[in-house]
Amino acid sequence: MAEISAAVVGTGFIGVVHVEALRRLGIPVLGVVGSSPERAHAKADALRLPVYPDFEAMLADPRVTVVHITTPNHLHFPQVRAAIAAGKHVVCEKPLALTSAESAELVRLAGSAGVVHAVNFNIRFYPLCQHARALVQSGEIGAPRVIQGSYLQDWLMLPTDWNWRLEPELGGELRAVADIGSHWLDLMTFISGDRVSAVMTDMATFIPVRRKPTKPIDTFTGKEVTAADTVEQPIHTEDYASILLRFASGARGVLTVSQVSPGRKNRLSYEIDGERAALAWDSERPEELWLGRREVPSGILLRDPALLLPAARGATDYPGGHAEGFPDTFKQLYKAVYRAVAAGAPPAAPDYPTFADGHEELILGEAILRSAREGRWVQIER
Ligand code: SOE
What is the domain extent for residue 50? Predict the structure, then answer.
């Protein structure tokens, strides 16, 4: 992969995760762009990375073949569009855009440019999630009937907790659903092979006024801010949502998302009940997959490459008992994406999430919001 090089726009919490994963794969990261050169240097110097003066300079660098976009959500659409126009392959954080009209446009532009396009739904790349998908595909659990779970966090549970995601102009009209619910919905589509056909939503904003820091702060660092450095800010996006789900196959389900759940740091969990067996997994215990059965004892599979189905083995690199986690999912995702980059174009059936998957989450998000506002079931129209 010697001739392939990356650059990353965005130097927040997740931008650094992208850089570290790329380096583990031996992909040169030529530089980063931050919201200002000073903020970029604060991160880049520790990583021994050059800083581009601005996004345009990054795009103008002919050595950069792949651009990773890890900026606040409102910048995704214009930056992806510019990167495609500059002939770059693109990996974009979720959500791909702020509206489904924008994401549809990006699917079209990437398709006609022939570039590799990926959306960072990294949770698919936990080895046991790949194994769960392979189990469903093999018919082991029978047709899924009930698909339910939650994505819970506690980092926004106090009125003094702040992040740019709380501002609709930067983060979009949906917050918890777009930020973490989108991961869960994408993962369930990936594992079950099914699609959501209708949604019914209940939402709540428990903290209608928050204290906004007068200076920008990084994601997950809100605890370090003192009240004296803040101003009052009304909040219009959801802290919580529960969404009843109907799937195209006839399966039913429910998802709860919350960013105000004490003690839940970053916990995505699911249970899929099939005709014969069930699967359950929790991202805070990512090395364990529960297999539920009626006639024989249920059990827990501890991740071990030798015990995974062949389709899942490619997503795990360490022997059993040598825990793999969040940063490894980025490495495994980019392994798949950069195979396509090395080939020069997207494969016929990508083994990584593409802009089409990013677009799907915008369609679902808009239906979920409409359902909450109108208090009724909303059919998904694609
Ligand atoms: C913040 O809620 C966040 O960083 C998300 O944006 C990520 O997608 C998730 O992986 C962890 O939490």
Answer: 6-123+334-354
Cα–Cα distance measured from residue 273 to residue 268, given in angstroms and rounded to the nearest whole number? 17
- Look over the chain and give the mean of its residue pLDDT values, rounded to a whole number: 96
Burial degree of 306 (CB within 10 A; 0-12, 13-18, 19+): exposed
Q: What are the Cα distances from residue 209, in Å, to 139, 238, 252?
A: 49, 12, 35
Ligand 1, residue 120: give the atom nearest the CA: 8
Residues 342, 219 share a domain: no
Task: Please give the average per-residue pLDDT across 314-325, as a whole number.
Answer: 98
Q: Give the dihedral of Cα atoms 215, 221, 226, 228; nearest 10 deg.
A: 20
pLDDT for 219 beyond 90: no
- The rounded distance, in Å, linking the Cα atoms of 59 and 84 is 10
CATH number at residue 340: 3.40.50.720
Provide mean pLDDT across the span 280-292: 98
**Residues 348, 369 share a domain:** no
Task: Note whether 191 and 94 are same-domain residues.
Answer: no
- Ligand 1 pocket member 179 (CB < 6 A): yes
Distances (CA, A) of 242 to 71, 132, 140, 239: 27, 24, 29, 11
Instruction: Say if residue 236 is in the same domain as residue 271.
Output: yes
pLDDT at 185: 98
Tell whether 94 is covered by a domain.
Answer: yes
Is the domain of 367 the same as that of 306? Answer: yes
Is the domain of 86 the same as that of 134? no
Residue 228 clears pLDDT 90, i.e. is over it: no
What residue owns the CA closest to ligand 1's atom 2?
A: 179
**pLDDT more than 70, % of the chain:** 99
Number of domains in the chain: 2
- Protein residue closest via CA to atom 9 of ligand 1: 180
Instruction: Say how many Å lie between the CA of residue 48 and the centre of ligand 1.
Output: 25
Q: Is the pLDDT of residue 286 over 90?
A: yes
Q: Are residues 209 and 293 in the same domain?
A: yes
Residue 2: the pLDDT is 44
Same domain, 174 and 259: yes
Q: How confident is the model at residue 1 (pLDDT cuts 50, 70, 90)?
A: very low
